[in-house]
């Protein structure tokens, strides 16, 4: 979960930095991924109705309730007001459920991040006097913000509505891939206006907007752009806006340069605010609509990474008219199709949690390409995608674990190929010749650690997803794993570990690099590239350099080979041995070789004892007050952050799968709920939600690229995956209830399944995984050595 405190400014040596008519509308909306016609059946309708976009908008979920289509570039949502965006960690998605005022509706957001940017092209309808500043949240009427209530507020996939109480305006939002569409019902008797603020963003601070422009064209189209220096420095975004009512007047203001307009303009002179174009760093415009009072008006806004003219082209291509309901219906159709990837039979609260989680996994990576195929790359130059759709917003440290593996099951193969081609395009255009680390809007942030585009590619390759140049892919992976200036990779290649006296968070880096290296070896071996497979297979064992036999923890070594002293296993934070965690949370991160980890501890029973110590510890949450990321505690286990996500499944590797079943029960009961604060931590572009989807189904991808899913236990009575190859895989949990939480028997296609894992190819072949649940733990099921999941160091019978 990335944090502002982890951001650094890149340098030459970077640090880290939605029935046929509906389908026609869908195609018009720019969704280029080939997909079968959406089924307007009862199951898809129930799935759509079960989604509650408010889940995660409270607490630390950091999700937004606004309008977006699956993987859409426009993510149009309300932004709520706080005293200062400098306090903005809790407002990373722009909206918090507990707030009472709305500042406006902006067109770009992140779903569930712990750091933020975006909030581009904020639009606010106004009835009455126009005020140019947001105002003070404690003083209603002091600015253009408005109070609102959750009464009458509606959030559905692809649609949002709210009443702005201070203006008596009903506002509705919907979207296509590249266009946000607003509908405002203005009250009678007051002048109608629309304000456009280019100054505001998530995490405002002086100098963030480096330059911006707004212009009113002769045909009434408003266009503009801004360049910001935020999380991704030098990010450029362009927009085009049209109104269903004619503009009767306007004003453009630069609040940084313009003098107060009291007494302006002088007699006989034209008001300079009525200029046709303005440029500057702090721009806000207001547009008057004499014919809109008491009427409904539609505003549509397209965005583009390339130019204002491209934004206009996107507007014309996707939403040529002002049919708000048509766009809304098209968005609904896309969501019904996407959510129809899984059919779930379960109690309503459980369905609400499941389908909302699935919904949250289908927002990112997000489209980042104009209707003509052009996009902006990490070199800040404009490129054109040839044969693929370009995506950005890759939160890879979070999403390689479960989000991307889930998308191989619930999204068309072409979509997954597009993700990989986008990663490879970024490698091609990178000034440093590396794959993305944490990228959005084409730009690299260098946030978090590892080279985790690598396991995303390897996992897809091992699953037979290969609509890209595989040789180029392997080269890009090796290039990224060999880029010495990044986060201690030079030392890692030399020593086999990252030395803590030369690079921070060295234990975490050593462990994560070793896993990524293992995925390179897996792909290279499958491709017949023995040299690369051997090299990176050896590097995959580098986790052993971090293991301290004396303490039983993963620790950071210095260049001289000694462990850094003094050692405190509870210590966390920047400057420690670990990234967003401590020794109790990171010492189990060897997903490629859990058998080896058990052996290092002196055997499986000792590893199990250490895992129990993690979950059973009495931990005062105040110890993590300085770490916003470490939430959702069960003992030392922190479900609110990714390094813990695989830990409950490790019992299955150690021959005690019933313990995995118990721990998963604890986690599901305490870390997820069907309410606004129902996520224990930041959703992180769908990773927390992907964990829930997998675990509810009954299995989880501990080691992406292994092609194995570790069986936990099912939490749904019945669920069917409608796979991208047209087949159907059903999971049935007979007798499942609170009194019967343990697996008593497992059958795969009518035959006993005695192992603690299921293979990807078995799921893709279709069929049925049938569990019979019971009250007591079966301590004999899936315990034999040959029944354990994969480990690189092997186990008996494997």
Automatic annotation (TrEMBL):
Alphabetic keyword roster: Glycosidase, Hydrolase, Signal
InterPro entries: 6-hairpin_glycosidase_sf, GH-type_carb-bd, GH92_a_mannosidase_put, GH92_N, Glyco_hydro_92, PNGase
GO terms for MF: hydrolase activity, acting on glycosyl bonds
Keyword Signal appears in the UniProt entry: yes
Enzyme Commission number(s) from the entry: 3.2.1.-
Source organism superkingdom: Bacteria
Domain Glycosyl hydrolase family stretches: 311-774
Any single Pfam family the record assigns to this protein: Glyco_hydro_92
Signal peptide range in chain numbering: 1-34
Ranges for domain Glycosyl hydrolase family 92 N-terminal: 51-304
Keyword Methyltransferase in annotation: no
Record protein name field: GH92 family glycosyl hydrolase
Lineage, opening ranks: Bacteria, Pseudomonadati, Pseudomonadota, Gammaproteobacteria, Lysobacterales
